[in-house]
Amino acid sequence: MTNESKIIGIGKCIPSKVVTNNDLAKLINTSDEWIKQRSGIEERHWVSNNESGSDLALIAANEAILNAKIDKNQIDMIIFATISPDHYFPGNACFLQAKLGISGCPALDVRQQCTGFIYALSLADLYIKQGIYKNILLVGAEVQSKGLDKSDKGRDVTVLFGDGAAALVLTRNECRDPKVDSLIFSTHLHADGAFAKELWVSGLGMGNGDALVTRAEVDEGIHFPRMNGKVVFTHAVRRMCEVLNEALTHNKIAITDVDFFLFHQANLRINEKVAELLGIPAHKVFNTIQKYGNTTAATIPIGMYDAIKEGKLRPGMLVASAAFGSGFTWASALFRY
Ligand SMILES: CC(C)(COP(=O)(O)OP(=O)(O)OC[C@H]1O[C@@H](n2cnc3c(N)ncnc32)[C@H](O)[C@@H]1OP(=O)(O)O)[C@@H](O)C(=O)NCCC(=O)NCCS
User: What is the dotted CATH code of the domain comprising 183-336?
Assistant: First the structure.
């Protein structure tokens, strides 16, 4: 019998405002056809002015805690994956902790972009397996809409992203039989900073000039994300295949033994290409990008939530997850739900 981590609760919060591709075409020079054809996205959700990432996270976290049937005071740690925090500092985990009305437990932000959720999951899993914490609240939440360049200059990035949040509660579980019991088998994390500038925000930091940001820089739009889409696309396909294979090899599992694939949602074509290259049948890959766009650190837990609600992800299923994002970073996780 070993100590393992197990998912016991899940919650989600998607802002109510739907922004269709046609809505975007009223703001910038784009079209429903271009967006759908290149990315698979049909619509995304954007917050209203007074909503923040920690607000979305609070709703998702409350649902996850209720679903886990624990008291919020039993949470031993909060890990919050986001690249769109409410404030420059402190991190969103602290704001969420205060909104939940709990105090004392550690509250940590993970800033690993689209790979953030799997990086955060790996930390939660290690803290639990080491016997340091029992119940960990793990959140992926983003408000991308407020940080996008809604001029034609930013159209390649702006059409891809959306807002949303989801939360998990993980707990320590005595695993008797890994063939049946829920557990996280392993996580595999990578990065290559040589590609940091292929998808990044060049300004709004201490790395440039003599101020966080100047008026001239804001006019230039250096606080908006910029991307070399083709480079990101190619690397995403290659790295997601590699890191999925790494998880399978590490656990001595054949790809055909995996019941369900939860990939990061950056572009439907990326996920279709990964599935094609690895010989994964389409019905095993769960995509939500059509409805939500890319919600960065929130895509994987949002997908998990929807798949459970739709009855597609069921207890006992073997799940492989993979993500790729800015950094470049990439990661995978293999778990039994
Ligand atoms: C962004 C992406 C959809 C663009 O698709 P693409 O096939 O590479 O398209 P290109 O960049 O070659 O652009 C083709 C044309 O469309 C134009 N275009 C860019 N964005 C557009 C938009 N929103 N609407 C209409 N046209 C657009 C370009 O300006 C270009 O025009 P040009 O040929 O006159 O120069 C694609 O590269 C992609 O998905 N990359 C990965 C992105 C990603 O995963 N990011 C997140 C990582 S976690």
Answer: 3.40.47.10
